[in-house]
Amino acid sequence: xxxxxxxxxxxxxxxxxxxxxxxxxxxxxxxxxxxxxxxxxxxxxxxxxxxxxxxxxxxxxxxxxxxxxxxxxxxxxxxxxxxxxxxxxxxxxxxxxxxxxxxxxxxxxxxxxxxxxxxxxxxxxxxxxxxxxxxxxxxxxxxxxxxxxxxxxxxxxxxxxxxxxxxxxxxxxxxxxxxxxxxx
Length: 184
Prior knowledge:
The longest helix has 19 residues, at 2-20. The chain contains 11 helices and no strands. The chain starts with a helix and ends with a helix. The chain has 2 domains: 1-80, Serine Threonine Protein Phosphatase 5, Tetratricopeptide repeat; 89-184, Alpha Horseshoe (Serine Threonine Protein Phosphatase 5, Tetratricopeptide repeat). The protein is 59% helix and 0% strand. It has 184 residues and is mainly α.
């Protein structure tokens, strides 16, 4: 089993290097492998940890959205900036909120992502969580609030999370009203 794994890893390393050492394609191939050593090899071969791919995402954002957490940890260890957003300025935390993924939001906050960055539209992850209509969006919203994100932060156009929740999610609206009444 150990020999088979070693052979597999060597084949992956060769494939990553064949894609083009130092290219974002090599790093993407390494991320797809979700193998810490393969990611480290692609970076050592010259791939830039924060290079933006053709899809407008850094390797960190790509790996996070694909739930390739071994690759995410390798990228963080190599100094990748987890706060770089996609073409719309949305970070991995924005995407976690958009998808109603509270466990991912908590994990990203533990990894040091800024809790309340604004995307190009002036919306924070909390704003995005409030736009979702599912209970999972309320869970993501709660994870952000529990991490200290202000419940009354305004978007670029002046809307609050409560303004956004009014149109989409009664549970989120109720939770926000409770948090605001407590003065958080």
